[in-house]
């Protein structure tokens, strides 16, 4: 299918759509995408050291524990950028060794105050 002809339609497998939410994308609702984000609130404590926000490109091949272990290596260096890059690198390597394609991979790490 030429790129100019590609589009997503309900009940069709191609070209494919692997997402459940797209912030504010009300047009994609016809294909089953939810435009409204899921929001939850969590209280933090002094024991909480960081927050990781990542796409399914990370979570498809890394467990919560693996991501925490990777990020924790950079906590004392106070380098959230290096931590996020390390997570993306590890997830990318796992995609490359297990799949024919590599999904989009996004990771944001926020180190919390009060160490």
Task: Explain what you see.
The chain is α+β, with helices and mostly antiparallel strands and 115 residues long. The chain has a domain of 62 residues. The chain is 28% helix and 9% strand. It comes from Perkinsus marinus (strain ATCC 50983 / TXsc). This is Protein phosphatase 2c, putative.
The quaternary state of the protein chains shown equals: single chain
**Gap between N and C termini, in Å?**
54 Å
* Count of beta strands: 2
Instruction: Tell me roughly what share of residues is in helical segments.
Output: 25-40%
Sequence of strands across the biggest β-sheet: 1-2
Instruction: Please describe the biggest sheet, giving its number of strands, its sense, and whether it closes into a barrel.
Output: 2 strands, antiparallel
Mean pLDDT: 84
Low-confidence stretches: none
How many H/I helical runs? 3
User: How do the SSEs run, as a string of H and E?
Assistant: EHHHE
Computed CA radius of gyration, to the nearest angstrom: 17 Å
Keywords:
115 residues; alpha+beta; two-stranded antiparallel ribbon; 2 strands; flat; Protein phosphatase 2c, putative; PP2C
Topology at a glance:
Layout: E1 50-54, H1 56-59, H2 64-72, H3 80-98, E2 107-111
Antiparallel strand pairs: 1-2
Helix pairs in contact: 2-3
Short description:
With 115 residues, this protein is α+β, with helices and mostly antiparallel strands.
């Amino acid at each position: 299918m030429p790129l100019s002809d590609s589009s997503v339609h309900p009940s069709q497998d191609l070209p494919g759509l692997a997402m459940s939410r797209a912030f504010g994308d009300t047009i994609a609702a016809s294909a089953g995408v939810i435009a409204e984000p899921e929001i939850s609130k969590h209280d933090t404590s002094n024991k909480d050291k960081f927050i990781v926000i990542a796409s399914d490109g990370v979570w498809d091949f890394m467990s919560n524990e693996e991501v925490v272990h990777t990020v924790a290596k950079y906590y004392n260096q106070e380098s959230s950028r290096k931590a996020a890059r390390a997570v993306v690198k590890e997830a990318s390597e796992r995609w490359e060794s297990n799949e024919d394609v590599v999904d989009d991979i996004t990771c944001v790490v926020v180190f919390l105050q009060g160490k």
